[in-house]
Amino acid sequence: MAVDLSPTPDVAELVERTTAFVRDVVIPLEERHGGVARTEDVRTELQRAAKDAGVFAPHVSHEYGGHGLDMRGRAAVFEAAGYSLFGPLALNIAAPDEGNMHLLEAIATDQQKERYLRPLATGEVRSCFAMTEPAPGAGSDPNALTTVAEREEGGWRINGHKWFITGADGAAYAICMARTSGTDAGKAGATMFLVDADNPGMRLVRHIDTLDESLYGGHLEVLFEDCRVPDDAVLGEVDEGFRYAQVRLGPARMTHCMRWLGIARRSQDIAVARAADREAFGSRLGELGMVQQMIADNEIDIAASRGLITQACWELDQGRSAAQSTAVAKTFCAEAIWRVVDRSLQICGSLGVSGDVLLSRFLREVRPFRIYDGPSETHRWSIARRVLRRHDTEVRR
Amino acid sequence: MAVDLSPTPDVAELVERTTAFVRDVVIPLEERHGGVARTEDVRTELQRAAKDAGVFAPHVSHEYGGHGLDMRGRAAVFEAAGYSLFGPLALNIAAPDEGNMHLLEAIATDQQKERYLRPLATGEVRSCFAMTEPAPGAGSDPNALTTVAEREEGGWRINGHKWFITGADGAAYAICMARTSGTDAGKAGATMFLVDADNPGMRLVRHIDTLDESLYGGHLEVLFEDCRVPDDAVLGEVDEGFRYAQVRLGPARMTHCMRWLGIARRSQDIAVARAADREAFGSRLGELGMVQQMIADNEIDIAASRGLITQACWELDQGRSAAQSTAVAKTFCAEAIWRVVDRSLQICGSLGVSGDVLLSRFLREVRPFRIYDGPSETHRWSIARRVLRRHDTEVRR
Amino acid sequence: MAVDLSPTPDVAELVERTTAFVRDVVIPLEERHGGVARTEDVRTELQRAAKDAGVFAPHVSHEYGGHGLDMRGRAAVFEAAGYSLFGPLALNIAAPDEGNMHLLEAIATDQQKERYLRPLATGEVRSCFAMTEPAPGAGSDPNALTTVAEREEGGWRINGHKWFITGADGAAYAICMARTSGTDAGKAGATMFLVDADNPGMRLVRHIDTLDESLYGGHLEVLFEDCRVPDDAVLGEVDEGFRYAQVRLGPARMTHCMRWLGIARRSQDIAVARAADREAFGSRLGELGMVQQMIADNEIDIAASRGLITQACWELDQGRSAAQSTAVAKTFCAEAIWRVVDRSLQICGSLGVSGDVLLSRFLREVRPFRIYDGPSETHRWSIARRVLRRHDTEVRR
Amino acid sequence: MAVDLSPTPDVAELVERTTAFVRDVVIPLEERHGGVARTEDVRTELQRAAKDAGVFAPHVSHEYGGHGLDMRGRAAVFEAAGYSLFGPLALNIAAPDEGNMHLLEAIATDQQKERYLRPLATGEVRSCFAMTEPAPGAGSDPNALTTVAEREEGGWRINGHKWFITGADGAAYAICMARTSGTDAGKAGATMFLVDADNPGMRLVRHIDTLDESLYGGHLEVLFEDCRVPDDAVLGEVDEGFRYAQVRLGPARMTHCMRWLGIARRSQDIAVARAADREAFGSRLGELGMVQQMIADNEIDIAASRGLITQACWELDQGRSAAQSTAVAKTFCAEAIWRVVDRSLQICGSLGVSGDVLLSRFLREVRPFRIYDGPSETHRWSIARRVLRRHDTEVRR
């Protein structure tokens, strides 16, 4: 028991295998498709290859066919997978499925696990998480939730308007968050429901055209209109939805960071290769001070991101809430990764804005991460509030 | 004669008319097309409307049907036009045509003006400027020019490989830069040629897929293969091409800044409207300190950009080279405008990354400006070199 | 009438003379004293030399012995004077005297002008401006003013606690701001009083030890204890103090920027000289890209600062309130100048933190400017509020 | 064996004791002296108290009276000690003594350890490290070393000019770096010598007046003039000086970071206390968004700094060179800590620039850390070079 940063041998080995798999199998496919998988064929091909390579579903427990990695193990493996935009899809660790598996393992009943988790864990089906609403509903402020579920004979009736529901097109089911009690902004009173996609009360309105395009299944606007679900569609306990959301969101924030950190490393590698090969003004690009500065700052941002992810994951694995450390890590990583991609593109110049390398694709994919899962401003507000509360507590003592 | 920042009445009036035209006519079209004009119909409709509104070709001399604005006048009018991505196309002041008109007015013969400038000034045809080459050719370092023109009986034969030739698809002619003497990296020895698009020696290889998409006619890869042109295709004097490039580039840098400053203002207006209307955490978004900070920083960046453009344009209008002030303005504006769009998008949250507002489109369009017309790093290098040379001169005195 | 950035010949000539005076007379004295004038001898010597050089009191009207410069003229001359920490003291344009002269010219009665302005304008006496109070009094929020003046037979009785009263030690009089009506935080109800330093009710408590040390006469804590003043000590109208404060503060913000911009230029010149002469890693320091980047960024920050000052001064000279443009300029300049000094020091390395050059002195002097005259945060808040108000007005229209 | 961030119980307990000691004993003394210890009385009092508290010399091996902490243990304890400017002096872990003890333990002979290390470890004497030279000598580029040691009968004769020799005034001896072979810039050829302070050939020229003032014994300019030392004054092997310098510098960089991270935390605590207590514009300062942003950014910078220190220390404890990770950590920490102190001062406003809190003192102490132990630019250069070299190696494979 002392500070130690080595991964376990199992994790180290899985990282190595994942790295090779991404390099040899995933990236060629990704580059052929410009970083955006648009068909089931691609998904199927990727996932079959991942199973063959023994790297599929690393985060799922052994019982459901995975490797049972804790958060620290995921940190290493997800980063390796995230080195390609197609890596997470291949390993079945892309958002939102990965977070939903985590949530279902934590709170679903055994029957629900069999019906919803098992096929999700194998990649047989996909899922979505229906929480976010357009203004003035639940966005960065979850308390503004306006979707409502009312009890009725033998079940519930859900009405509400959701958007930015990632992966909804083609998902077999949604986990839908709806208010079940309380009328004010208080956190009490939300419940999570499992809604099958063929439920006539759930309607996909449109694909939202977004800057990012790589999340499989898109971002959709979804309507719940008198959507009837039975009692056993309740996930966990009634009125505990906000608490469960935290169970999902803390780790989900981190897994986003891990995956995007992979893209940051990839961007840096592309830029470094360019800086090593390209001549300008009579010397190798990489010998120019301003280029070196960008390369060094990338290296620093990547290392600092990894350090913060490690801290948060370690806390999560100890069963701590890690609210502060996940907020700190998410805020820093979202901005640092963005900077890394931006600098890498800048190093590559015109080539960087062309489709001949994937950097401008990465830039588009990474930008929304400063908004998704809570805008940086919301996280900074919550971080500061916790610091001030800590101060107040210490003073009162 | 004393510091004065008021525009002349003529310019003030033209700005007002342009502002109204953009608001009433241009923006509705732009929003319908998502900011990207893909067909001649759109261009024709826009330019006809601009002529009707009396705002067409403000930078061209009266002789060729324009308003004859100097650089200071352009600064005000182009910013007003740039408030929409479609504004410059409508007024016929988009890149690269606007810079080509400027160049042709300055150095073309009368016959060349009749044949090339007049139809360009009326919008009858479009043009392109073929200077940039893929690595290791002329990119941020123009001295690396590899395209060569060799003298032959009655004319010249051009061979070379260009890319990022904006507007080449559909252009009636290209102004092509080729080395005509000297074999080293020295600046001496380039010449500009007028090459008609139907010349069999000029071949459009492909549209380069780029992060930005709004420049009409795209960015193309172009090959000159034994491209024969007659003697009167020479623009200006033989071997003076690098000097002419500066004639074009100094002002062109500034007109880019002016147009994109319009987009910065537009972005800020979209964000402010959102901040004024949207409620979050119990108050108007615009009452939250971190949002106020972004709004204020936008305001500061816009004002500082305008100040630097004014300085450079005033120097250019005085006939000074303005190499330092245009480099300073270009570097600052490219980064400041980018920050403004980025912050505005951030203020709008998920809406900002969606296609429901044009901010993510603007982000894509504005990013390459930190690379096009010289990456910020190249400009910083040239700025510092001039400062050091100034120091050396003063010390020697 | 068109955009013009040339100074008038008078101003140009005065700038030239000031530049030579600072270089030849002021800087040698400044360096000998490490940038901090601590005795009347130094002040007297400097001001006598400035009078001899014909550059004294450029901002004061001819009637009181000055050059009668408007704000645009001051911008150029004050920057030249500010090139040395001792320049403003020499020209009698240092804070707070310069702002007080401006205020007295604008609102004092003829008798008050003879008694208070004339000896101040000649440098015979110094003055101070007693507004700021320790928390929870008037700091960045002037409405929190707690000093009170109560009417009594033949005059007023002032009670209050002030701090950061610059120049109070040795000042012949103070202009004291006190609440004269209203009990809430409303702006109505403050009055300015002229209080002679020998008034027994005004007591200098202590010199506040501050990071900056170059403002002559220090920053003091001052108590007004039953301080009796006659009716004719009222400056301007009763209850109009907050409005007058704006008369003083808008221009005073700009003159601070002008003076500190001089120090930014000086810092850059010191760093450039070092970069030109010093060898490291086998080349001139100034040939290293990261050093070039700092030099270029300095150049950009200086140019942008100057542009914003010009804009604000032009508005002020037109009689406009210029509240937004002065806030924008002050916020940007305070941070840009700070960056310039910080980078310059960095370029000089260990030498930069030593007393062998004045950069670390400049760093100490310039840092508080991000707080004095309103912290950047307060200005950003006011800038954003004006933007939002403008939006609300336009929408309502 | 898996990622673990808990300290050992011994370290945890020592951190707790150090924290209490700093809070109860050290800070009162520090505040009384304004953060600068100028006399032996203060040093003696502090060190006696640290011995009484059982927290003295935590980094020294048990054999020499210390706690024998590895780098990871030091990270935790030094940060706790660094919470006060006087903490490191009290625990005898201040620069340069701390680094010298580390070096002597690693490479001195037993006799040298008895004579030089033992009295240093107990605080009986102090020492200095004479490497840095004024331009054009060894500064950020150690290869430029100009001090020379020539072999002579029974020993060596040293000649050279050093500056920024921290702690030289009052030191019992210096470890002096001199060139002993090779004439070019090659790294081969330097040797370390133990020079007693009473050696007539070693002369303290002057105290350099610096922005920072808290390092006990000052920064001095030192001349070695025909300074004769015997053969057993050689520390380690002849011509191995540059390699030993790395033995010292890697860990020394980290211990600087640890100590200054303590000051960053202290600054944040001062600012948070202020933000919690102070009212402005009708609310608690800490409820204003821009203040929350600064508090949150401080929290992020502190956490990221700690993560990078942990990474580097773990590598060092594994016996790895850690050249990249210490460079990354040093560069980030120096800038992040600076930002934290700067923001904390900004939050406190006028109070922050006054001597009434120690923030402006901290600002002065922390600024040079971006230059000392290698300017950030030098580290960025070395970081980028290693990245490029890694790329070249991988490509060749």
pLDDT averaged residue by residue of chain A: 95
Question: What strand line-up does the widest sheet of chain A have?
Answer: 1-4-5-8
Structural class of chain A: alpha+beta
Shape of chain A: globular
CATH architecture of the largest domain in chain A: Up-down Bundle
Give a short summary of the structure.
Chains A, B, C, D: Keywords: FAD, Flavoprotein, Oxidoreductase. Chain A has 397 residues and is an alpha+beta fold.
In words, what does this structure look like?
The structure is a homotetramer of 397-residue chains. Chain A has 397 residues and is α+β, with helices and mostly antiparallel strands. The first copy, chain A, folds into three domains: 9-122, Acyl-CoA dehydrogenase/oxidase, N-terminal domain (Butyryl-Coa Dehydrogenase, subunit A, domain 1, Orthogonal Bundle), CATH 1.10.540; 127-239, Beta Barrel (Butyryl-CoA Dehydrogenase, subunit A, domain 2); 242-389, Up-down Bundle (Butyryl-CoA Dehydrogenase, subunit A, domain 3). Chain A is 51% helix and 15% strand. Chain A contains eleven helices and ten strands. In chain A, strands 1-4-5-8 form a four-stranded mixed β-sheet, covered by helices on one side. The first copy, chain A, has a four-stranded antiparallel β-sheet with strand order 2-3-7-6, with no helix packed on it. Chains in contact: A-B, A-C, A-D, B-C, B-D, C-D.
